[in-house]
Amino acid sequence: MIMYLLFLAPAMLLGLYAQWKVKSSFTAMSQIPARMSGAEAARRMLDNGGLQSVGIEQVPGQLSDHYDPRSKVLRLSGDVYNGRSMAALGVACHEAGHAFQDAKGYLPLVVRNAAVPAANFGSGISGILLMAGFVMGAKPLILIGVLFFSAVVFFQLVNLPVEFDASARAKHELVAQGMIAGNEEHYVGKVLNAAALTYVAATLQSVMTLAYYLFVIFGNQRDD
After folding, report:
1. Which residue of the set 40, 57, 95, 185 is catalytic?
2. Distance, first Cα to last Cα, the chain
3. Which single residue of 62, 118, 160, 189 could bond 151 by disulfide (Cβ 3.0 to 4.6 Å)?
């Protein structure tokens, strides 16, 4: 347990900080007014990029915003869809950035989307295999569990450039299309940078979890 905490504690603390940071940044930047709503900004960004066919829908929840590549729809939470703030513009146009990636065949997004089924399956089955392997002392089960968990780590790693690129596209389009002034970019950046930290924390946690499993396996081999 102590060794597990040594591996995972820094990533878990970073994750907690990232969650607090993104909520506090969104709340603060929601107080900075914008010229239009998040839905209007996303629509303008999409239309300017020739993506008139991509729809925008309002969905329940807070920070539940996402782009659905199968339906070609941006789904924005109420605070983002209706909000006329720097926070709403940043989040909405970040999701529009994913639509741009999808339309242009952005390779990391293609790889990430292809990895989703393996990551989802690996996340579910790896825990069962690892628990059974450790309880039974069966190294083959542990190794198979680690192999499946590696799919989760791969997904997290390839997800980082996808998210960073979507944020970069959002900031560029917001300024280029005159939806925000150049000196307002740092307000949008505060929200997007805080969101990026959550992806970094999730990736670090999965990498360190994998490192712990490998340490247990190969550390025990050395002891034997």
Report:
1. 95
2. 20
3. 118
Q: 133: which residues sit within 8 A by CB, 6+ positions away?
A: 139, 140, 141, 142, 143, 144, 145
Residues 6+ apart with CB under 8 A from 129: 141, 142, 144, 145, 148
For residue 217, how many other CB atoms are within 10 A of its CB?
Answer: 14
CA dihedral 204, 115, 58, 194 (to 10 degrees): 20
- pTM across the whole model: 0.87
Token pair recorded at residue 23? 């909520």
95 carries an active-site annotation = yes
**In this structure, are residues 212 and 7 in contact, taking their beta carbons and an 8 Å threshold?**
yes
DSSP type of residue 75: E
What does the alpha-carbon distance between residue 191 and residue 63 come to, in Å, rounded to a whole number?
11
Instruction: Please answer whether residues 66 and 95 qualify as being in contact, where contact means their C-beta atoms are separated by less than 8 angstroms.
Output: yes
Q: Tens digit of pLDDT for each residue in 92-139?
A: 999 999 999 999 999 999 999 999 998 999 888 988 888 888 888 788
Q: DSSP characters for 10-22?
A: HHHHHHHHHHHHH
